[in-house]
Amino acid sequence: xxxxxxxxxxxxxxxxxxxxxxxxxxxxxxxxxxxxxxxxxxxxxxxxxxxxxxxxxxxxxxxxxxxxxxxxxxxxxxxxxxxxxxxxxxxxxxxxxxxxxxxxxxxxxxxxxxxxxxxxxxxxxxxxxxxxxxxxxxxxxxxxxxxxxxxxxxxxx
Length: 157
Fold this sequence. Notes:
Blueprint: H1 2-43, H2 56-65, H3 71-74, H4 80-95, H5 100-108, H6 110-119
Helix pairs in contact: 1-6, 2-4, 4-5, 5-6
């Protein structure tokens, strides 16, 4: 009976060592990504803590990149979520003036590229989504009748 107890203690110790060997590096990488994304959100004028709240972080990210909130539904659909997730990351890098190569870096090595984006010299240029570029919020005084081109709206600039 004594040999059984010592072998189970030894196997439990090995499991703990293996778990620790994988858990600690993953935790360190996760902390680096969280710090980098916190800084990215701050650079975009959003609260940094929003990057660590599940679901809310996606809502804020959609505001940063200029996409509508209903995209969250697309992230729940299998296979479509991969496409929309990559698209969101690409729009994030474009919002900071980076190229598609930087997008690949954000996808493959986020623990390196999120801190580069957050702590580097990149500045937030505004939402990169085509729909969000140049569009002003709705102004009821600036309504144009599509059937009457005689009366142009007043210019409120």
